[in-house]
Amino acid sequence: MLLPLFFEATLGPEIWALIGVLVGGLLTGLINYLLQRSQFKHNKEMYYLQNTSRENVKDYLIELLNHKKYPERKYVTLRKRIGAYSDDDLRILLTEVGAIKSQAKDGTELWYLKERNDERKNAIKKGYN
């Protein structure tokens, strides 16, 4: 009981007000940090749930484009395998996985992964086609 009387006698009301402001600020900051962390975790889970199908399609496209026998694929074949997306969306997904568009001599649209350029029949050694 003697200790609080000592602090009250030596510390004025201005100092106690300052200590109260500091403690209140720290507690507010801690509570905000915990709320923001929880919100970030929730947003991350929602993003994952909303984009799961796109990520699965990307994985499947990589699998198709990494096939041993076919270093490049016709766009028509890819479109048949991935039916839920429009042509533009599918082309965007192909570029997101690192695929490059080329054209066969007969005008057929072909897609291949950049790292498999050397495996193609008519591979271009320098530059792009």
> In total, how many domains does the architecture comprise?
1
Number of strands: 3
* Computed structural class: mainly alpha
Helix content: 55-70%
Form type: rod-shaped
Keywords: Membrane, Transmembrane, Transmembrane helix
Transmembrane segments: 15-35
Provide keyphrases for this structure.
129 residues, mainly alpha, Arc Repressor Mutant, subunit A, three-stranded antiparallel beta sheet, 4 helices, membrane, transmembrane, transmembrane helix
What would you note in describing this structure?
This protein has 129 residues and is mainly α. The protein has one domain (2-119): Orthogonal Bundle (Arc Repressor Mutant, subunit A), CATH 1.10.10.10. It contains 4 helices and 3 strands; from the N terminus they run H-H-E-H-H-E-E. It has a 3-stranded antiparallel β-sheet. A hairpin with a 5-residue loop joins strand 2 and strand 3. The longest helix is centred in the first third of the chain and has 53 residues, at 13-65. The model has no long low-confidence stretch (mean pLDDT 86).
How do the strands and helices of this protein lay out in sequence?
Blueprint: H1 2-10, H2 13-65, E1 72-74, H3 75-81, H4 87-96, E2 99-103, E3 109-113
Antiparallel strand pairs: 1-3, 2-3
Question: TL;DR?
Answer:
The protein is mainly alpha-helical. It has helices spanning 2-10, 13-65, 75-81, 87-96; strands at 72-74, 99-103, 109-113.
